[in-house]
Specification:
Blueprint: E1 3-7, E2 14-17, E3 27-31, E4 34-35, E5 42-45, E6 52-55, E7 65-70, H1 88-107, H2 112-137, H3 140-162
Antiparallel strand pairs: 1-7, 2-6, 3-4, 3-7, 5-6
Amino acid sequence: MYKISYTGDGEALQFAFAFPFFQPDDVRVALDEVLLDASQYNLQYAEDLSGGTITFATAPDAGVRIDIFRKINLSRFIDYQPVAKIDPENLNADFNFLLEAFRDLNAIDMDLTQWKNIHDNVIRQMEAIKELIEDKTGAAPLGLYNNLLAVLSTALPRMISDYGLVSESAEENIDDYGTV
């Protein structure tokens, strides 16, 4: 999870952060672990959504912990149309969004009910994207994707463990990386 923390000194009004986000609503602020409403501070952000500054109307008291963090809203940005061509940039943006959402989820401590709700929403979104890809392109690209996942998750670890140490004698197998 992207997060930066400050300790209030009773005077500072502005607090900078430098982490990527997808929309302004992804940036959250908490004082002493109490989440603030967006109306309680002003968010100024870089045009490329790579960071920004939080400004308070009144400086947080001395000793108050100020957390600025990213929590991605799981919502659709792109609406693929059934008869329109899929733009690879949009598709990559969708997958990047999902990857970042998973990274955020991996870093947050939450109870199982919260996890189940978020997990179910992400799974539904991924299934919708999968169905859309199948509808637009047929099963071929998705089949390639699934094959790649299978290789990465099963075959690759087995291949690495089958080669043995470089210092071991090589067998007749051309796939063995031992000394020849």
